[in-house]
Structures are given as C-alpha cells and as structure tokens.
Amino acid sequence: MRSNFATYFKDFEFAKFDKNHLAKSICWYPSAGDDFRHIVYLEKANLKSGYTGTSHLYIFTDYYLPANDTIGIDVFKTGTVLFETNTSKESTQLKILRTTELTLKRFNVCPFFSKGQFDDRGLFYGTGDHYSNKVFFLLTELSIFQNGRAIKVLIPCFYFTNENCNFLVDFLLHNQLCVDTLVHIQDGGGTMGGSYLNMDFIYQFQKLLKIKQVITDKSVNKKEFHYDARARMMDYLDYSNDFNEARKGHLLHGLQDHNWIDDPLLNWEEEKIAKSYYGETLYNSTERYYYLWKKRI
Question: In angstroms, how far is CA 126 from the centroid of its own chain?
C-alpha cells in the first residue's frame, strides 16, 4: 500500500481509531452484503501464527443491502453481532463497537446515480437505498474463547456502498492500491455483483492489484469466465463521461497497456475449507467446500 489508507478521508479522526494501527494488507470483498465470515477465518489463522494484531484492513463494497430487510441485520448499527459460532471447544463472536460515516477526499460519483443503466447491456440495476454512495468505518471486535483463554482483537473495516466496478476503477486502480486477499463468494449472495454481469473482470487485474490469495466458493478447476474484461472496462470508462478527461485518459492508457491474461486461472494452487469451519449463511452454494486459492511464487 503506497500510503496510509486513512489519508483518503477528510475526517478520519472522527473514527476515533489510530490510523497508524491500520494493517497494511488489504482484503477486499465485493458485493459482501452482510457476510463477515472471512474476517473470523483469516484472523484465527493469524492468531495461530502467533501474531496478536489484526492481519488485514478489511474493505467491503455493496451498493445495496437487502439484508437489512430480509434478515434483520443492520451492518452499520453499533452493537450488531456480525457473526458468531459456539461449539464445545470454542466460542467466537464478531460485533460492531462503533460506526462512523466518513467523507472521501476524492472519488467520482457512482454511475448508476448519474446516468442510469447502459441501454444495451445494463451494467447497473436498481436505485440503491438510503445507505448507497457512502462510506462507513466499522470498528469491530473479534472475541474468541477457547481452552479457558479469552482473546480479543480490534478489526478495522471500511464499507463502501458503491458499485464494484466503480470502486475498482476509480478508487483501487486510480490510487494504485494493492489487494492482498480477494473474497469472491457467489458475487455477493448470487445477485451478480450489483449488476446483470458476473464479476470475473476482477481476475484480469490480479497483477495490477497484486492479489496473493482468493477465498471463493468455486474450485480453480471449475471456475468459468463469461466475457472479456478489457471490453467491459472500456465500455465503463466511455460511458462515464462525467469524469475528469485527464484522469480518464490516464486510466484508459493504463488499461490499454495492461497485459491482459488469456487464462486468469493459471499459476494458482488451492486448498479446501470445510463449510463447518468457515461458517454457514443464508447464501450457500452447492459446493461442499469453500476454497483458498494461493498464487504460486
């Protein structure tokens, strides 16, 4: 990460969190909804390695949160329990200690607010809700009780209620941020990632984002790709004609020069994650396992 993540916000001091304690490794979960299981999975692995601080800075994107209506979980409400498990050997709970809405210094408008849909392909759909197009800092606490020992770790999360493509191009790529870990599970509950299209385009940017590992519900041997990511990005930038032309030109130049990958799934190895260990949610695929892909060095 080229600079401290807190530098992108005008008012991060209101979050009451020391920005110097933000982890440098980014974990991004596009179309996350109210799924926070990966935090528990990654942090438990981190604790096993002997490190007691948080391993990642967790970033979520989802422009619409139907879970508020269907499940009764408000992911922005202080005190909300985001995930918990209880077994004979241990109990685990992840809850929100504090939520702060933040203002970004620079970020372009969410295209579906300004222009609506593509007439021919429909990259975006819906109108969002009263949370859309905002950023929230969630200070969460992970509590683990096992073998008579209680462990508590503060976990910083940034929740962007923006569309995934908008966030990828105009925040991550524009600011040259690296994403060490990508979480890609059913495109966020099977809603196709806030669009009528699958989010396979993310894998075409694995070199630019420097992705090292992926948590997903598809084996690398079964993952399929449905369209050309380069064409999709060009459509996106051409459509977003409200953008600053100089910056738009810079992004187009970078995308044109990018060495697009013919087979985005080359050079990955995987290990299975038992669902009983990772946790169940309302949105479960037919797969028996989740998978952790790791980039071969």
Answer: 20
Q: Is pLDDT at 46 greater than 80 in this prediction?
A: yes
11-36: average pLDDT = 91
SS3 181: strand
Query: Within 13 A of 61's CA, how many CA atoms are on the CB side?
Result: 22
Q: Distances from the Cα of 75 to the Cαs of 160, 188, 201, 204, 224, in angstroms? A: 12, 15, 27, 30, 31
| Neighbour tally for 268: CB within 10 Å | 19
Classify 236 as helix, strand or coil: helix
Residues 6+ apart with CB under 8 A from 138: 75, 76, 96, 98, 99, 156, 157, 158, 159
3-class secondary structure for 69-92?
HHCCCCCCCCCCEEEEEECCCEEE
Check: CB of residue 194 under 8 Å from CB of residue 62.
yes
Exposed e or buried b per residue across 96-127, where buried means at least 16 C-beta atoms within 10 angstroms of its C-beta: beebbebeeeebbebbbbeeebbeeeebbbee
Task: Please give the Cα distance from 172 to 174 (Å, whole number).
Answer: 6
Q: Biggest alpha carbon distance in the chain?
A: 60
3-state secondary structure of 8: helix
CA distance 89 to 145: 9
| pTM, two decimal places | 0.87
Where residue 192 falls among pLDDT bands split at 50, 70, 90? very low
Task: Tell me if 112 sits within 8 A of 124, measured CB to CB.
Answer: yes
Average pLDDT, the chain: 78
Q: Say if residues 19 and 50 touch (Cβ distance below 8 Å).
A: no
Give the span between the Cα atoms of 86 and 231, in whole angstroms: 47
Strands in the chain per DSSP E: 26-30, 57-61, 81-86, 90-102, 135-146, 149-160, 181-184, 213-216, 268-274, 289-295
